[in-house]
Amino acid sequence: MVSKSSYEEMEFAKLDTDRESRTGFPEVVFCEGKTDKHLVEIYKRLYKNDGQVFGTRASQHQYEEVKRVLPNVEYDEVSRILKSVPAKSEKKENDKDYIVVCTGGTADIPVAEEAAQTAEYFGTTVVRIYDVGVSGIHRVLSKQDVLRNANCVIAVAGMEGALASVIGGLVSNPVVAVPTSVGYGASFGGMSALLTMINSCANGITVVNIDNGYGAGYVATQIDRLAKRR
Fold first, then answer.
1. Alpha carbon separation from 85 to 1, 7, 16, 170 (Å, rounded)
2. Binning pLDDT at 50, 70 and 90, where does residue 89 land?
3. Which residues on adjacent β-strands are paired with residue 8?
4. Residue 128: which of 85, 137, 111 has the closest Cα?
5. Which of 171, 180, 185, 216 gives a 20 to 30 Å CA spacing to 153?
6. pTM, whole model, 2 decimals?
C-alpha cells in the first residue's frame, strides 16, 4: 500500500515527493495548461522542498508570474524551459561519457533544446550537432566519430524524418528518434516523420511522441547512466 507520506497534498495537485528515490529522477512540471496560481504554488513548493525545479512548455507570461516569487528562475524562449537550479560546475571538454543531440534543420532546434536541457538537468553531458539533415548528408557524415563515441544519440527531425534512419545505420549505440511537427501540409503536423521513424529499417532506433524532446532527454539519460555503470 502506498502511504500519503509518499506525496504532498496541495488540493489541486499531489506532488510526487518520492519519485526521485523510486526512479532516480525528480518530478518535472509540465507548465502548459496550468493556471497561473497553480503553477506558481507548485514552483514555490518544489523549490522549497528540493532547492530546484524544472518545467517544460512554459510561456513568457508564466515565466513572469513565477519570477515574482522566485527571482532566480530562468526562462529559455527557444526550448520553453522554466527552471530554477543551483549553479553547477562546467563539464570537462574531454568527458568520455556523453550523449549527442542532432537535428535535421534549424527549425527542429526548439524540440532538440528541450531534449538537451532536460538531459543536462538530470546530469548528462550533451554534445549538440544541429542542422545535419539528409538534404546535405555530408554534414552528418562528417560527425561520425562524435556520433559513434556517444552513449546515445537523439535524432530530432521533421519533414520526412529520415535523419534517424541515417544515423541508425552509422552507429552501434542506441538512437532515440524524435519526430517534430515541422513541415509542409502533407507532413500532417509530424505524422509523416513519426511514421518514417517507426517504420525505419535501421536497427536500434526507438521513437518518442511528436515534439517530445523531454521524453527523449529522459530516456537518453537512462541509457547514459546504464552505460556509465559498465
1. 33, 22, 18, 36
2. very low
3. 15
4. 111
5. 185
6. 0.89
Q: What is the DSSP string of the chain?
A: ---GGGSEE-SS-EE-TTHHHHHSS---EE-TT--HHHHHHHHHHHHHHHS-EEEES--HHHHHHHHTT-TT-EEETTTTEEEE----PPPPTT-S--EEEEESSGGGHHHHHHHHHHHHHTT--EEEE-S--GGGTHHHHTTHHHHHTSSEEEEEE-TT-THHHHHHTT-SS-EEEEE-S-S-GGGGGGHHHHHHHHT-SSSSEEE--TT-HHHHHHHHHHHHHHHHH-
Q: Look up residue 55 and give its amino acid.
A: G
CA distance 84 to 54: 7
pLDDT per residue as tens digits for the range 108-140: 999 999 999 999 999 999 999 999 988 889 999
CA–CA gap between residue 140 and residue 132 (Å, rounded): 5
Cell of 104: 535535421
Segment 149-176, tens digit of pLDDT: 999 999 999 998 899 999 999 999 999 9
The residue type found at 35 is T
